[in-house]
Design goal:
It is built from five helices and five strands. With about 140 residues, it is α/β, with parallel strands linked by helices. The protein has a single domain, classed as 3-Layer(aba) Sandwich (Rossmann fold). A five-stranded parallel β-sheet has the order 3-2-1-4-5, sandwiched between helices. The protein is globular, with a radius of gyration of 15 Å.
Length: about 140
Amino acid sequence: MFERILYPTDFSDVSKKVLDCVKELRKSGTQEVVILHVIDQKQLDFMFYDTVKSLDTEAELHRRAQEDMRPIVDELNRWGLTTKVRTETADPFREIVRIEEEEGVSLIVIGSHGKSNLEEMLLGSVSEKVVRKARGPVLVVKR
Ligand code: ATP
Ligand code: MN
């Protein structure tokens, strides 16, 4: 049923916990995982005013994200899953639901929380908006 799935990651501890669940889905027929990291356009704009410098920074952030994805790819491949890696600069939640459609995945597997991981929040802002706006099913893995 969930042959191709989307795994958006912010490389947080919660996100790592999500990976265990993604691996388990192999047993339910999942074959390919699209791994997505979104570099937040707003944060990038906020950090740097200088255009040239921000282009450098953006490239560097993409390079680092690709690097951080390598062990995830290796682990999933070892588990018998094929992978596709994407890093994009955009608004994280909007990009996640856009890629859901573009890639034609049948499930999004996301963490309830991410890097901020605030105690009093039921869901992080990205996961909340993804649950609201995704077209298909969303599996939310609790922290
Ligand atoms: P907030 O960002 O609202 O302060 P938070 O960081 O605790 O709270 P979210 O950002 O909503 O929580 O993260 C929940 C999940 O959403 C993460 O576990 C991850 O799966 C996904 N996610 C969050 N940010 C990104 C991102 N930039 N790229 C890809 N996936 C992301
Ligand atoms: Mn976050």
